[in-house]
Amino acid sequence: MITGKIAIPLLLLTVNAPLTVFAVSYPPAPLYHREYKAETVMQVGHEVYLFHSGTNDIKRNIRDNDILIVYRINPSCEVETVGKIRVISHIGETYLRGEVVEGEVRPDDIAKKGDISCLIISAGMCR
């Protein structure tokens, strides 16, 4: 009888006891050539490649010779216009090839036409 009165609270304590969890901490994912990309500047006449989602909206609304406005987010998180790109052609399902026609653009800038956005990547990645 006494063992039952002691055994039940002990059982409840072991069930409710916090369990030790061993977590593994990985270093943060390295950004793909971040230092190289930050220094790359593409000026008027340079060929650029843009990555997009590949949805039908892109295929319907972005055509060859369209002009996309290029935006950059500055360190204080403000969006500023930095240039324009003319679309040369579609490449596969998710890429566009373009040419800088105004300003200076960098990888990770955003090129937009209306509500459609594309990420500018460095020219060397698609060769």
Major β-sheet, in short? 6 strands, antiparallel, barrel
Radius of gyration: 27 Å
Q: State the shape.
A: elongated
Please tally the helical runs, counting DSSP H or I stretches of 4 or more residues: 3
Strand content: 25-35%
Separation of the first and last Cα atoms = 81 Å
> How many domain units?
1
CATH class: Mainly Beta
* Secondary-structure element order, N to C: HHEHEEEEE
The helix fraction, in percent, is 10-25%
- Spans of at least 5 consecutive residues whose pLDDT stays below 50 are 24-36
- Counting DSSP E segments of at least 2 residues, the number of strands comes to 6
On the 0-100 scale, what is the average pLDDT?
Answer: 78
Topology:
Layout: H1 2-16, H2 34-39, E1 47-51, H3 56-61, E2 67-73, E3 79-91, E4 95-103, E5 110-113, E6 116-121
Antiparallel strand pairs: 1-4, 1-6, 2-3, 2-5, 3-4, 5-6
Précis, in short:
This protein is an alpha+beta fold. The protein has 3 helices and 6 strands, in the order H-H-E-H-E-E-E-E-E. It is 21% helix and 35% strand.
Properties at a glance:
Elongation Factor Tu (Ef-tu), domain 3; 3 helices; alpha+beta; 127 residues; 6-stranded antiparallel beta barrel
Explain this structure.
The chain is an alpha+beta fold. The protein has one domain: Elongation Factor Tu (Ef-tu), domain 3, CATH 2.40.30. 21% of the residues lie in helices and 35% in strands. It contains three helices and six strands. It has helices at 2-16, 34-39, 56-61; strands at residues 47-51, 67-73, 79-91, 95-103, 110-113, 116-121. It has a six-stranded antiparallel barrel with strand order 1-4-3-2-5-6. The longest helix is centred in the first third of the chain and has 15 residues, at 2-16. It is elongated, with a radius of gyration of 27 Å. The model is unreliable at 24-36 (pLDDT under 50).
